[in-house]
Write a structure and sequence with these properties.
Elements lengths: L1 H44 L1
Length: about 45
Amino acid sequence: MWYNIRKMIIIPYDARRLAAYAAIAHSLYLHLTQLAVRHCVLERAS
């Protein structure tokens, strides 16, 4: 009984943590691609 309750609590917690990791990874990816694009533009300009 207690184990089932714990499982019900832990699973949404893990899902939220995964969602947070996904959001962080996504923003990092966007940031890196932005930096890469800016770098390419600067290289082309010079």
